[in-house]
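Researcher: I'm comparing several assemblies side by side, and this is the next one on my list. It has 513 residues spread over two chains. Same procedure as the others: predict the full complex and return the structure.
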Amino acid sequence: MIVAKQKPIEEIIETLKGYNKILILGCNECVTVCEAGGKKEVAVLASALRMYFMNQGQEVKIEEATLERQCDHEYLEEIRKTVDQYDAVLSLACGVGVQFLAEKYMHTPILPGVDTCFMGVTEERGVWSERCQGCGQCILAWTAGICPVSRCAKRLLNGPCGGSSKGKCEINKEVPCAWQIIIDRLNELGRMEDYERLIPIKDWSTERAGGPRKVVREDVRS
Amino acid sequence: MTLQDRIRSGKFVVLGEFEPPKGADFSAYLKNANLSRGRVHAVVVPEMANAVLKASSLGGCAYLQREGMEPVFQLCCRDRNRLALQADILSAAALGIRNVMAVPGEDVRFGDHPQARAVNDLDLMGLLETLQKLQTGKDLAGIELRGVPRFCVGSTLDTGASGGLLNIELEHLKRKIDLGVEFVVTNPIFDLRRFEQFVRRLDAKQTAVFPTVLLLKSAGMARYIDRNIKGISIPSEMIRDIQKAPDKPQECIRIAANIVARLKDMGMPGVLISTVGWEDKLSQILDQANI
């Protein structure tokens, strides 16, 4: 999933300055799972903002809604009839949702309520960590299913840097060394010969080097 | 007289442009640069133009500096993060290089290594801010430097922008000047009427604007540029003149010299002459332009 975290409320208030009727729009997908922008977070933020504006003596109307997704036309269409009533929409979806809204509703300012962080997993409730950077050319088949692009601080493709200690990365003792995990797992799988394989110099054109990316599937295109 | 002194004195500036080779043999590079000795006031050394791998601008500058020529070190944000950029800026200063030019740098996809990962840690304004900061004696982290670098700082200006984009370009120029830019080099100019209209929108006192005069090599090259390079238009009569001329290289030199002379007459503070491979013809251009 895409992991996000809510922006500090001071920053949100700063971006809402001058707007009197605001819709806080949550998303039922990833940001609900990482507890940053689902229905519950929309309600909590709306209450906090109402209290803030009331204390300031400002009449600001805050309304709430949560869509199934903000990265699909069909769900974004649900607010078409009502969006013009608002001075601004504060989206708690990831940056993808914020932008898709902005592209669709040209006349309404769309503001972000979360900072989008990475593609990752829920290690336990309240702990999310990165697993994928969407480099566009997956090498997990040769690295025991563990990604050195997203999990090695130096993105090394051919073994550890020598800076790790007791299985932890030199940048932070809390961060496991990706190559330690890869080698342990290759051993476990009896596939250490994969480690001998030299991974060629990476072609980053499928990452961001080629500019904004797009996937087109003619077979499913409508 | 240094480039900076010359700009400040208002004397007409002639910049040459010599791109370092793709390879470790600099002998032809030096030979070409030497052909312009005494005729150009400084040499702009491009940093992998069009994202095509060449020896670095810093390397080229170090060579020219050693040979007693005044180089302009080009920097772009495509290939280096803020650490590497600052490190090279400090090294340039230590080598005695007095001029730097911050350029946007074409995307890697246009070059010969499209698989490369572009860096773009800083943007152009960030790079200019970095240059400004280093010249106050501190790095971007605020840590004091031993020895403060001093530069005459330049950048680029796109005169081909039109409509709203032109306003943005002029706004960017203001920002660049606020960030310490003393000169800007434009895209190649062929259509002087259009350039004159552009210049009217500039506040000439703000900064020195050096139009680029690109030496054409054939009618085909001219036609290609006119059709395919955004923001550059070449008058059709110019293309026709090259086509009809019995001695085409001479006609190309005549056209370039004519543009240089007319730009000088317009009151431009200088020009950059780009000869791309025909470095031996630079002197003839200047002779014919009476410079």
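Model: For your comparison table: Chain A has two domains: 2-118, 137-206.
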